[in-house]
Structures are given as structure tokens and as C-alpha cells.
Amino acid sequence: MKSFLSSLLNALLWAVMALLLFLVLSGIVQRLHVNHANGLFGIGYAVVVSGSMEPNIHVDDMIIYHDHKPEEYQTGDVIVYRRNAGTPEEMLITHRIVEISEDHSRLTTRGDANRVSDPEISFDDVVGRLVWRIPRFGAVVEFIKKPWGIALAAILLLALFTGNLLVSTGWTGRKKVRTLFGEQYLRY
User: Is the distance from CB of 65 to CB of 43 less than 8 angstroms?
Assistant: First the structure.
């Protein structure tokens, strides 16, 4: 049982470390405005700020998306696209595809909670398809995007990695003892 719990804890720590590393690196990339929408390796994330996708996606959910070729998208996919691309008012929108043109150059979307479809958009504005949703994690993500958040997440990541390394190698402490051969340090 102890081995199972140890393995479970180890897997959980690695998952948290991987998520924090992704968020820290993506936060740095976004702070530098390098490939803002697509993030790292075509994988990006966004925080939902409106209720247009209720009841499936909620305000403050974190969504992870991945870019694809236009012909890989289908009606019913939830996508992330740029509205007002290249302007100071640029924002990312998360809506469902309701119609795709025959030549896969344009599409129409609509939020699940909306009664009216959005204006038609070009596939050039699409940044990716929804891959994963983490409920209510958006507040944490927004904090990590700030300079103090990046620093705190990096410190937490380093502490988790160091603690996991120490536990997995069996080091939990040392004690100085006298033996026949002189003073030695014992691990305990």
C-alpha cells in the first residue's frame, strides 16, 4: 500500500510540475508577445471571460487548444479564434463551429448560449481546436501571467522538483554519529 501511495504521489507531483512548467513557459512567451495566440508548439491556452459557451464551458475555465489544418476542422468542433486580429482590441473567442464553407476558407461560429451566429470568419483567424478544459482554473492562470505570478510559479516548480528528487532518492535527513571508525553521517 505504501508503494502504491508513493507512486501515486510521484505521478501527481510530476503532473503538477509539468502543468506549472507549461504555464510558466507559456506565460513568458505571452509576456514577450512571441507567437501570442499559439503558445508553445502550436498549443495554447486561454481563460474564458464570458458566458457565451454556457453550460458546457464556464467563465474562469482554462481551456487548452491546439492548431490544426483547415480541412481537419468539422462542424461541432469548439475552436478558439482571433477577433480584431492585429489591432489593440484583439481578443480570443471560444465558440462552436456551426458551418464551414465548401472550400474550407471560411466558417461560421456561435456560442452555445447565443441565439445568433457570429459573423463569418476566415480560417486565418482560427488559432486552434479545444483539447482540454480545466474548470475554474482561470484565476490561477491569470495570476501566473503577471510577473510576480511567473516568479512564484517558478519557485513552486523548483521546490516541487527538489522535494520530489529528495524523496525519490531516499534522502530525508542525516545525523552525525560516533563509531569505531570515527564520526560518520547516517541517513535516516
Answer: yes
How far is Cα 32 from Cα 65, in angstroms, rounded to an integer? 20
Contact assessment for residue 84 and residue 91, using Cβ atoms and an 8 Å cutoff: yes
Q: From start to end of 24-162, where are the E strands? A: 43-47, 62-66, 78-83, 91-100, 106-110, 121-122, 126-134
> What letter does residue 78 receive in the DSSP assignment?
E
Q: Where in the chain is the domain with CATH 2.10.109.10?
A: 35-142
Q: Is the dihedral of CA 42, 121, 77, 50 positive or negative?
A: positive
Q: Give the pairing of strands 62-66 and 126-134.
A: antiparallel
130-186 tens-digit pLDDT: 999 999 988 887 887 788 888 887 887 787 777 766 666 665 556 666 766 666 655
pLDDT of 53 higher than 80: yes
- Which of 137, 166, 155, 128 shows the shortest CA–CA distance to 24? 155
- The residue among 100 and 18 whose pLDDT is bigger is 100
Give the Cβ contact number of residue 180 at 10 Å: 4
Query: Which CATH superfamily groups domain 35-142?
Result: Umud Fragment, subunit A (2.10.109.10)
Q: Give the start-end residues of each E strand in the chain.
A: 43-47, 62-66, 78-83, 91-100, 106-110, 121-122, 126-134, 174-179, 182-187
